[in-house]
Specification:
The two termini are 28 Å apart. Strands 1, 2, 3, 4, 5, 6, 7, 8 and 9 form a 9-stranded antiparallel sheet that branches. Helix 5 crosses helix 6. With 218 residues, the chain is an alpha+beta fold. 29% of the residues lie in helices and 33% in strands. The chain contains 6 helices and 9 strands. The longest helix has 15 residues.
Length: 218
């Protein structure tokens, strides 16, 4: 086993050098705290601070996970977009529950979210699709996402043909098979690294119209 590829466990001096960190503040507003953490992540992370793991289950109950990009959030939930005929699109249509995971390495923070999933409205989907660069919209139209591809040339040929048709037109139509999902959270957990693995965990879960918080052992 190539253990040399695994970073060593931090030493006492490593932890001492990193200093103390304030604990996660108590809150009854997880969306507000997420907004603060997302803003700090955007300032600190070199790439894709809005990247998140999306976990779903297939028809046999087997879990699946991949990285997608968060495209919006508010009190209603967390929004992302995809090909509805992709593996994740089919999973979410059949089993409309999911989990999200954010990991901001530079801040040594994580956020875990679980909840139910619903489709985003056509109007909201159209608005986001129109905001994408023309080549990205063309790629979305050309891709049979998650399905077998004979070879890369077939996909590139589709791209070339669609590019000839649409060019940089602002009116590239959104295909019916491309849409968005919104996860409405029932649980949100904030995790922050602390020295000597004494990590700080604050979990909030819905109760009525509000949220209840509790600390978890690391």
């Amino acid at each position: 086993m190539p253990t040399s590829l695994i970073p060593p466990t931090p030493s006492a001096s490593d932890y001492a050098d990193s200093g103390d960190r304030p604990l996660i503040p108590e809150t009854a507003d997880p969306i507000g705290l997420f907004q603060q953490w997302m803003a700090e992540a955007r300032a600190a992370e070199p790439n894709d601070s809005n990247a998140m793991s999306l976990a779903t289950v297939d028809a046999d109950g087997n879990p699946d996970v991949r990285i997608v990009l968060l495209k919006g959030f508010d009190s209603a939930g967390f929004t992302f977009f995809t090909n509805l005929e992709s593996a994740k699109g089919q999973h979410l249509t059949a089993h409309p529950s999911a989990a999200l995971g954010f990991h901001w390495k530079s801040l040594r923070r994580q956020v875990r979210i679980r909840g139910s999933v619903t489709r985003v409205s056509d109007a909201e989907t159209d608005a986001y699709f129109a905001s994408r660069a023309a080549p990205s919209r063309i790629s979305a139209i050309a891709s049979d996402q998650s399905r077998p591809m004979a070879n890369r040339a077939v996909f590139e040929q589709r791209i070339a043909e669609l590019s000839t048709i649409y060019g940089d037109s602002p009116d590239i139509p959104r295909p019916d098979y491309w849409g968005g999902f919104r996860l409405t959270p029932i649980e949100i957990e904030f995790w922050q690294d602390q020295a000597f693995r004494m990590h700080d965990r604050l979990k909030l879960y819905r109760k009525g119209d509000g949220w209840v918080s509790l600390r978890l052992y690391p």
